[in-house]
Structures are given as C-alpha cells and as structure tokens.
Amino acid sequence: MHLVMDASGRITHPGPTLVKMRPGQELKGKQFLDLFEVKRPHAILSMRDFRGIAPQKLHLKLRDAPHTALKGIMVQAGGDTDQIIVNLRFGISIVDGVRDFALTNADFAATDLAIEMLYLVEAKTAAMEASYRLNTRLQGAKIAAEEQAYTDTLTGLKNRRALNTVLNRLIEARSSFAVMHIDLDYLKTVNDTLGHAAGDHVLQTVARIMVDETRAQDLVARVGGDEFTVVLPDVRSEDILRRVGKRIIERLEEPMPYQGSDCRISASIGTVWIQSGDTPTLEDLLSDADVALYASKNAGRATQTLYTPELRDAANAVVPPGKDADRSA
C-alpha cells in the first residue's frame, strides 16, 4: 500500500490498494495533505513543514470517512527525481481497515507484515469461535445435568431434591403457600395383579392429572414410589385448597385403562397451609403434612385433611398404621 508524489505534494501514482480504499475518487493529481491529515509529526500544514525529505515516520488519518488511522514512511526516491514515496500500513487498525474497505491478502505485498497479522487475527477468531462453541456445549450439558438431578425420570415431575429447594426458598421469603402431601391408595394391588408396567403407567397418568389440576406456578413433585407433593404458592383461602384437593381425588378415582384392563386407585391428601410471616422448619412442615395425610388415611382414604395442631395431639396418642399395610389393602 503506497503512493508516489512530487515535492509539492501532488500525487503522481496512487498504489492499487489505496485506489481500492477510495473508490470513485481520482487520486492522481490530488494533494497528499488533502487526502491525509498528518497527526505526527505535529503541525504539518504544508509540504514545507516536512523540512526536507529525509526519511520520516508518519501517523496519518484519512480525511474522508471512514477516518481510518494509518502509519507510513516518507522517503525521497533515488536518482535526480524529486519524487517522494510514501509506504503506508494499517498497524493495529488493520482489522478495521480490512472490514471497512473489503480488502483481502491480494491487496498487500507478500512481504507485508499485515499478511501475518491477518493470519493471526483469523487464527484468534477461529480459536475464540471454537472456545465459544465448546463453552456453549458445556453450559448446555451443565444445565441438562442439573435439570436431570432435579427430575423424576419416570414421570418427568420434579423430585424431592427440587421440592426441598423450592420449600426452603418459600420459607426464607416468609411467603404464604400450601403443601399437599398425596399418597396413592391401591397402587400395590395394580402392581400385583397387572404388573409393574401397569403401575408405571398409573404413575405417569397420575403425574399428568396433577399437572392438569394445578396452576403453572405450582410445583408437582414425585417424592417416593407412590408419594407426590404439590406446592401451591400464594394461596388465599382454605376453600381453594379444598377445591383443588377434591378435583385431584375425583380425577384419580377414574379408571385408568391399560392393555384392556382398568387400573383403579384413589388418593389420600394431607395439606398444610403456611400463612405469610410464618417460619416453620422444613422438617416440621413435612412432618405436619404427614400427620394430616395419616388423618386422611384413618378417615377411610380418598379424602383430604387440612393440618391443625389437634391432629398432631391425636397422632401422638395413637400409633399411625404402617404405610405398607395401607397400600396392601
């Protein structure tokens, strides 16, 4: 990238790369200082300011947009001629120059260090893109692994780990929320008579029903073989809880067809309603839900019980029936 000019600063020969950088302009015959602003040496306003044509290092800027910064060396041509040669380069602005003027390696001399710099920039860009793709895959794998760690593989619901995380967050926020602990009745009978594949089908159907009967912001989790928990944030009344529990129980009592047979189960629910400002421990909260659940079991199953402190007094007075016995009934 170069140009040749006479002692008055009139360009007599613009190099092809410079011509490409100023398409549509007639550079031959144009004054050097009309094309470039000299940043260094300072105070260059005319060719006389160069004080002779000893080799000089120049810092330049194109006067017309884009105002690309350039570096150059100005030298006197050999022989008796008064011609001056200015060899130009982009320096650290080479990436901007290549982009702004659509230059390629063909626009630079083979010995120009710009070629090496372009290769280095290209290599760096390729390395950064590869690193970005790798980081994206790793991030995706991390998210997938975390999601899997919080998901029950059979039903696609959240698991106990996810449940505990959500409950701890709600407790710390002193929010109003409710917890429904749901235990399926007669699932063992389905497994014994129709096989475990039928039992898995029932569990998957139960998961879909619970999701259908709750809101998008509610959490439905499978926390055991036949145990589920529903967390309902921002509950306004017991009536809402009773209606949700009633819908779930009624839906789960409907026959679930499987390979020509009907699977029949029911559900018992124990519900705890936490008021805004309450600060129960996670252990006490889940224990209260269990107490209410066993009250539903003792009441004949297929019912919902809301926790009260009196239920715990009754539970302490009577040893609750074993869950295995319940499920085999």
TrEMBL record:
Return the NCBIfam families for the record: GGDEF (TIGR00254)
Q: Which PANTHER family match?
A: DIGUANYLATE CYCLASE DGCT-RELATED
Q: Where is the GGDEF domain?
A: 175-309
List the PROSITE patterns hit by this protein, alphabetically: GGDEF (PS50887)
**Organism's domain of life?**
Bacteria
Name of the protein in question: Diguanylate cyclase
Q: What Gene3D superfamilies does the entry give?
A: 3.30.70.270, Haem NO binding associated domain (3.30.450.260)
